[in-house]
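Need a sequence for this fold. Nothing fancy.
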């Protein structure tokens, strides 16, 4: 099974620097990497000021970048169909750029809006983060630009400040009303750890050690290949529903409702909002529980927590789909310790916590179940908690 972490980052860094030189003439000022993520637990909680527990994936977006002084921004991606997008930084405005280029251009816009006198740049991206799979390929694009600009212009921004800038680019420039989890994961995760995020105070995030292999465990990621899209209105409607529920309850955010107050809140709320609130409150509790189990050195105990999280997303939040439900049930039937959809939902990917020796059997069972149901086979890989965004030397290696 593809383990992602064995992909040769040094030669990829060389490759992206070489491609940059061919495209733009001359070497880049540097090469940066920003990863995709899977979230272990804590879904649709970030925009409710709640908790999440993501890990960074080994799959990442590499960016070769060189600053310019003439206010021009040139963007090219190995996955972008061969076209170079050329823009003037002064003309950047919400809605002015569409497609993949809106994410990186949005970060330059957000930095400028925040008063940083950053100019243009030549940028070339090459990504191994699958797109449309709910694995945060857009956050990886944004965060690569954020860390590169921070270094090129000596801005000295903290990880959470860079994540906030990337989130602003996505919210205000690209028009996707996401929370801050994906950007925090891409910037602030570390290898062999999960990131305990409190979205109300991202600066207080904590690393929770997570040595899956050392415990004889594996984390299987299954991309159902049902394309997920946060920009299609369903995500925004859920977020608006949560905000309305909080307002009706007289709370700053749903994070401020605890399990004790849940029955009364459910009774008081309109029937369409009550299940959303139940999901958010129980999901926040699942994150707290998961962190406790990890701190006790018992990652296998995450299994039932993941499965309960999926039931809540399926039955209360209603963001699963037949393919994600099938992947979860087939993985559990084949002996996974726990499984759930990860990310925003409406398709995307499922994670399964498995005993390492069961990885291939569980993956095979899910593939067989998809074939039997007439679905395209899922794409499978095993994830290891990996490093967040960082600078790579053009010749390879971490600087
Ligand atoms: C998407 C969003 F971008 C995140 O902010 C988060 O809300 C997630 O869906 C659901 O937990 O990935």
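Here you go.
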């Amino acid at each position: 099974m593809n383990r992602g972490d064995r992909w040769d980052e040094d030669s990829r860094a060389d490759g992206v620097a070489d491609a940059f030189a061919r495209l733009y003439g001359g070497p880049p000022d540097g090469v940066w990497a920003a990863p995709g993520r899977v979230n272990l637990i804590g879904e649709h909680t970030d925009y409710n000021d709640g908790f999440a527990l993501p890990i960074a994936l080994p799959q990442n977006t590499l960016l070769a970048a060189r600053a310019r002084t003439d206010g021009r921004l040139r963007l090219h991606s190995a996955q972008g169909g061969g076209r170079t997008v050329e823009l003037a930084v002064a003309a950047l405005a919400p809605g002015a750029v569409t497609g993949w280029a809106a994410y990186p251009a949005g970060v330059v816009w957000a930095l400028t809006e925040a008063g940083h006198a950053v100019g243009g740049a030549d940028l070339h991206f090459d990504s191994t983060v699958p797109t449309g799979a709910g694995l945060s390929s857009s956050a990886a694009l944004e965060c690569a630009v954020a860390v590169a600009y921070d270094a090129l212009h000596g801005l000295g921004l903290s990880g959470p400040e860079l994540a906030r800038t990337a989130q602003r680019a996505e919210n205000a420039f690209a028009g996707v009303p996401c929370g801050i989890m994906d950007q925090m994961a891409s910037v602030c995760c570390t290898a062999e750890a999960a990131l305990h995020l409190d979205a109300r105070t991202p600066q207080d995030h904590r690393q929770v050690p997570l040595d899956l292999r050392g415990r004889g465990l594996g984390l299987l990621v299954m991309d159902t290949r049902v394309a997920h899209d946060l920009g299609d209105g369903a995500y925004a409607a859920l977020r608006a529903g949560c905000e309305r529920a909080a307002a009706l309850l007289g709370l700053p955010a749903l994070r401020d409702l605890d399990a004790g107050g849940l029955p009364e809140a459910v009774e008081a709320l309109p029937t369409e909002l009550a299940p959303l609130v139940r999901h958010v409150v129980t999901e926040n509790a699942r994150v707290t529980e998961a962190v406790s189990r990890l701190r006790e050195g018992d990652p296998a105990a995450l299994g039932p927590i993941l499965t309960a999280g999926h039931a809540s997303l399926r039955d209360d939040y209603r963001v699963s789909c037949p393919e994600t439900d099938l992947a979860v049930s087939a993985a559990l039937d084949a002996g996974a310790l726990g499984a759930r959809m990860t990310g925003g939902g409406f398709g995307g990917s499922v994670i399964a916590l498995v005993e390492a020796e069961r990885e291939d059997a569980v993956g095979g069972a899910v593939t067989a179940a998809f074939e039997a149901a007439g679905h395209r086979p899922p794409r499978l890989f095993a994830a290891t908690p990996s490093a967040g965004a960082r600078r790579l030397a053009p010749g390879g290696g971490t600087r």
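For context: DSSP finds eleven helices and 13 strands in the chain.
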